[in-house]
Amino acid sequence: MGATAARIDGVSARAYVIPTDKPEADGTFAWTSTTLILVEASAGGQTGLGYTYADRSITDLIAGPLGEVLKQHDAMDIGAAWIAMQRRVRNLGRQGLASCAISAIDGALWDLKARLLGLPLALLLGRWRDAVAIYGSGGFTTYNDGELRDQLAGWVERDGCAWVKMKIGTHPSDDPRRVAVARAAIGDRGLFVDANGALTVKQALALAERLARDAGVLWFEEPVSSDDLAGLRLLRRRAPAAMEIAAGEYGYDADYFRTMLSAGAVDVQQADATRCGGITGFLQVAALCDAHHIDLSAHCAPAFHLHVACAVPRLRHLEWFHDHVRIEHMLFDGAPTPQQGAIRPDPSRPGLGLAFKRRDAERYLA
Ligand SMILES: [Mg+2]
Questions:
Q1: Whole domain around residue 84: which residue ranges?
Q2: CA of 151 to the centre of ligand 1 (A)
Q3: Which of 8, 179, 255, 294 is the residue whose CA sits 20 to 30 A from 364?
Q4: Is 20 exposed, middle or buried (0-12, 13-18, 19+ CB in 10 A)?
């Protein structure tokens, strides 16, 4: 069978639960572990991998109904397979867990197709750039000042990041002090904050003014719930000019992004390919951003995003999220390492450029 015809002949899914290195929290959630769902899809003697961070329950959906759908498709025809998967979950609700499942599978299909063709995925998609700027992300509200300082300074000093992001919103009255600690740790680098939707519009506006004035904060992510498009839009209009409003990490389909963009709710659109329909879904979001003249920033899972982030217009940067960087380096050979604040695909490795370290992962298998 040649590379232009390879029927998908296997789809598997496994869940791995990896404890965090310390307890972590943001403005609206707290956690002590992260669940990685690994998907493998095979055709023509090759195997592709994709993944998402979600609940272990989706392994049944991936290996069962979605896997059955895929076996009717050729590995070259990802668009047809993607639509068939969307239709298969129609009655379950396409958003949320179903979209995470499809996202991980779609990643595996793109990895598989690129491997069948012997190409890095960025080359198969077509590059706009050969490296992607990253910003360090963590700064959890569970950290003491020393932990916050060390983590943020590490991204600047070790990885060369031009920007770093910290969580706020768990105890809003403490945030100006925490942000001052962060500012002192990173010198003149860009400082971002993320409230994960914890604040009211007025709380957020007052904090935006104070953090811009006292600490030069450039980016306020989910100051209010990302479902409050009117609130986001108001903050976008009223926040200091040098401060951008960002949201979008909970977008699962193109309609979500169309609605957020057409509401004028964000200065920079965020999207997560492990949730929004995989590489295929991320390409759709990028086209919407381009049509709305809004920059795009990739949310988390940096190794998954690296190649597609090289292949879309208006890509601002990619989130170098502490938990996911740690997991990707623990469990994937080929996970990217920053140089001077950017990561780049390895041209010698096909597909996503990743190999799963099955033996190292065994102890985390759910
Ligand atoms: Mg966020």
A1: 8-120+359-364
A2: 17
A3: 8
A4: middle
